[in-house]
Amino acid sequence: MPVITCIDDLRELHRRRTPKMFFDYCESGSWTEQTFRENTADFQDIRLRQRVAVNMEGRTLATRMIGQEVAMPVALAPVGLTGMQRADGEIKAARAAEKAGVPFTLSTMSICSIEDVAEHTTKPFWFQLYTMKDQDYLRRLIQRAKDAKCSALVITLDLQILGQRHKDLKNGLSAPPRLTPATIADLMTKWTWGLEMLRTERRKFGNIVGHVKGVEDTSRLGEWTAQQFDQKLDWKKIEEIKKLWGGPVILKGILDPEDAILARKVGCDAIVVSNHGGRQQDGAISSIRALDPILQAVGDDLEVHIDSGIRSGQDVLRAIAMGARGTYIGRPWVYGLGAMGEAGVTRALEVIRNELDIAMAFTGKRDIENVDRSCILVPAGFSGVWD
Ligand code: GLV
User: Fold this and answer.
1) Is 215's pLDDT higher than 70?
2) 80 in a known ligand binding site
3) Burial class of residue 321 in the structure, from the number of CB atoms within 10 Å of its CB (0-12 exposed, 13-18 middle, 19+ buried)
4) What was the pLDDT predicted at 101?
5) In this predicted model, what pLDDT tens digit does every residue of 98-123 receive, in sequence order?
6) Integer distance in angstroms from the first to the last C-alpha of the chain?
7) Considering only CA atoms, which of 81, 132, 69 is closest in space to residue 111?
């Protein structure tokens, strides 16, 4: 077993052990990848304070996200195609999350279906919804999430159309992969991945295949998104979906204070400040820079979460100290999954947990609930000097 000291170790193993098209899918931003790069880089501009001679004994990271108990304020973000990073990937990740006591969010574009994940786990998970043109399918999808007892609906607002990711186009990304000389050459070096994939039947988009009438080929994410996702999504439709669901709702993809105010108006249990991991609007502000203005606008009466760019427990601490109530990791758990399956997701969560715990102790706090702005040093003008 290799010694894993940080998320980057898992990333390197993921790169070595997973077919290139899937590693690249995870590691892509859109177009120039400016926002993808800045998401991580901007976190590092926030410094952590160090306090000394403060009793550090008896620390706790337990808190609540949307009123639900979590062992630490870190959820697994919805990520598409994770059953291609490793066979049965979503089931493995959901189990690791369950054991760690943190929420798992299943993507609409997962390989394992909602029912499959529910059958192989014992606690409710969250379901992420893409809004589709096919209203009948959309209603059935929401009903399936209800039947599976999902405990929150995470509605993604920033992907009615897909940002262009150059690597996916060049690699001919599809699920399952199409066999071309290039993919065959790559797969020949990824034996464990291939053998596990041969043993599972879950190799297609499980929430879609067999559930959408008249759609023959879902394998190419880009084409399917262009055909099926609802470009007309607006606040009125969000309200309708909310009613249809009738349970806790999290609105994901908010990057602007004006949209945060509209989200509050439509009513939701939390928003996620997010630019989709830098995969959509390239040139958009990083999530961590967007956080403070959004907190100023709605933070007093709306729960605010954040994703995009978190790669360590120190980053989680930075976000919580800024005022977020919860955070999501996406790529870190996918690196873990691609590196070592369920054990890798567990390891990713352990790494983040340990880093968060120690970093919090060094700031002089023992309870994550008491972490606040006094724990960090934020450079002047951090949230923008733009007009
Ligand atoms: C889907 O969520 C993607 O970013 O590819």
Assistant:
1) no
2) yes
3) buried
4) 98
5) 999 999 999 999 999 999 999 999 99
6) 51
7) 81
Question: How would you class 379 by CB atoms within 10 Å of its CB: exposed for 0-12, middle for 13-18, buried for 19 or more?
Answer: exposed
pLDDT value for 60: 98
What's the pLDDT tens digit per position in 1-10?
A: 789 999 999 9
Could you list the active site residues?
A: 276
Give which of 304, 346, 365, 311 is closest to 60, Cα–Cα.
365
Mutate to test the pocket of ligand 1, among 132, 159, 169 (most ligand atoms within 8 A of CB): 159
The protein residue with its alpha carbon nearest to ligand 1, atom 3, reads: 80
Instruction: Enumerate the H helices of the chain as residue ranges.
Output: 7-17, 20-26, 34-44, 82-85, 89-100, 114-119, 135-147, 166-171, 181-187, 191-199, 221-228, 235-245, 257-266, 287-298, 313-322, 331-362
Q: Which of 82, 93, 68, 102 is nearest to 22 (CA)?
A: 82
Q: pTM for this one?
A: 0.97
Q: What domains appear along the chain, each with residue ranges and CATH number?
A: 7-377 (3.20.20.70)
pLDDT tens per residue, range 20-48:
999 999 999 999 999 999 999 999 999 99
Is there a binding annotation on residue 274?
yes
Tell me how far the alpha carbon of residue 214 lies from the centroid of ligand 1, in angstroms. 23
